[in-house]
Amino acid sequence: QLAENFYSSRCPNVESIVNQAVSKKFNQTFVTIPATLRLFFHDCMVEGCDASIMIASPNGDAEKDAPDNLSLAGDGFDTVIKAKAAVEAECPGVVSCADILAIAARDVVVLAGGPSFDVELGRRDGLISEASRVAGNLPEPSFNLNQLDAIFAKNNLTQDDMITLSGAHTVGFCHCSRFANRIYNFSSTSKVDPSLNSTYAQQLIQACPQNVDPRIAVVLDPVTPQTFDNVYYKNLVVGEGLLTSDEVLFTNSASQRTVENFANHQNHFFNAFGTAMRKLGRAGVKTGSQGQIRKDCTAFNS
Ligand code: HEM
Ligand SMILES: [Ca+2]
Ligand SMILES: [Ca+2]
Predict the structure, then answer these.
(1) Among this protein's residues, is 42 annotated catalytic?
(2) What's the CA gap between 149 and 158, in Å, rounded?
(3) What's the domain of life for this entry (predicted)?
(4) Contact 270/114 with Cβ under 8 angstroms?
C-alpha cells in the first residue's frame, strides 16, 4: 500500500531533495515542466507507475523507443535522472525512480502555478520495459470520447478523471503532424475541421504549412502556454482545442458540462486535478517485495 509518509524514517528529506533538483532543472529550461508531467502519464499508462518508461535499451526495444513515446522530451528523463542522483547522495538504495517521477510531476505543476497536492509513495520500480507492450495503452490524438474513456478505464480512471487530467495540456507543445488532418484533410466536404475556431485554424495553418519540418511544434494552449491554469478548458469552449481528443471533450454533450464547470471555476479544476493525479499515481503500482529499487533509473539492477 502507498503512503504519503512512506520514507519518513529512511529518507525523510526526499521531497525537498527532489524539489530542489526539479527547480534547478526548471531554471535551465521551461520544458522541464511539460516534459516531466507527460513522462509521468506515459509511465503510468504502461505497466503502471513503475518507471518502466525510464529504461534505456542498447537494442532500441525498450518502452521509451515505442513510436508513441518518441516525442517525449528528453528534459523529462533528465529531470528524473538528476533528482535520483541527488536522492541517492543522501539515502542510497532507498527511494524508487517511480516515486521520484511522481514527486517531480507534482512539483512541476506547482512551478507552473498549478495546485499542490500530497503525493502517495512506496512504489517499486518495474522489471519489464518493452516497446512492444505500449501499443493500445496510450491515447491517440484522433480518439473520440468512447475511445478515450476506454483507455483510461483500463487504469481505473473515470471519464471525469480523463477530462481533468487532459487539463495538463494547459502547458507544453505539440508537433504539427499530430493535428495536420484537422487543418488539411478533415473530410471530403471540409478541408478544415468545422469544430476548430476559424481564426485559430488560420494561425495553425501558418505555423504548420504542409510539408513543414517534422520538428516544428506549436503550443497546446495558445493563450497561456507556460501557466498551469484552467485556460485549456476556456479554449475548448471557443473552439481552440488543438487535438481532436481535446476538442471532443467540449463538442460531445456527455463531457461538455464538466468542461464548462472547469472553464468557469479554476478552483474546481485545481481540486479535481490533485485528486486525479493521485489516482493516476496508483495505476498498476508494485509494492512490498515486488520489483526493485533501481540504482540507475535507466537500467535494471544487475
Ligand atoms: C486524453 C488523452 C491524451 C492524448 C490523446 C494526448 C496526446 C498528446 C499529444 C499528441 C501531445 C503532443 C506530443 C508531441 O507532438 O510532442 C501531447 C503533449 C502533452 N501531453 Fe498529452 N495526451 C493526452 C492526455 C494527457 C495527460 C493525461 C497528461 C498528463 C497528466 C498529458 C500531458 C501532456 C503534456 C504536458 C504535453 C506537452 C509535452 C511537451 O511539451 O513536451 N497528456 N499529448
Ligand atoms: Ca510504467
Ligand atoms: Ca495554460
Answers:
(1) yes
(2) 7
(3) Eukaryota
(4) yes
Residue with cell 478548458: 233
pLDDT range class, residue 41, cuts 50, 70, 90: very high
Overall average pLDDT of the 186-195 stretch: 96
| Residues whose Cβ atom is located within 5 A of ion ligand 2 | 43, 46-47, 50, 52
Cα–Cα–Cα angle for 269, 275, 281, nearest 5°?
A: 130
Question: Is the whole-model pTM more than 0.90?
Answer: yes
For 145-277, give the CATH class: mainly alpha
Residue 55: pLDDT band (50, 70, 90) is very high
In the chain, what are the domain boundaries? 14-137, 145-277
Question: Are the CB atoms for 26 and 111 separated by under 8 Å?
Answer: yes
Pocket of ligand 1 (CB under 6 A): 34-35, 37-38, 41, 71, 73, 139-141, 143, 148, 162, 165-166, 168-169, 171-175, 178, 217, 220, 243, 245
Protein fold of 14-137: Peroxidase; domain 1 (1.10.520)
Give the distance (Å) from ligand 2 centre to CA of residue 45.
6
* Cross-strand pairs, 174: 218
Q: Whose CA is nearest to atom 34 of ligand 1?
A: 38
Ligand 1, atom 5, residue with closest C-alpha: 141
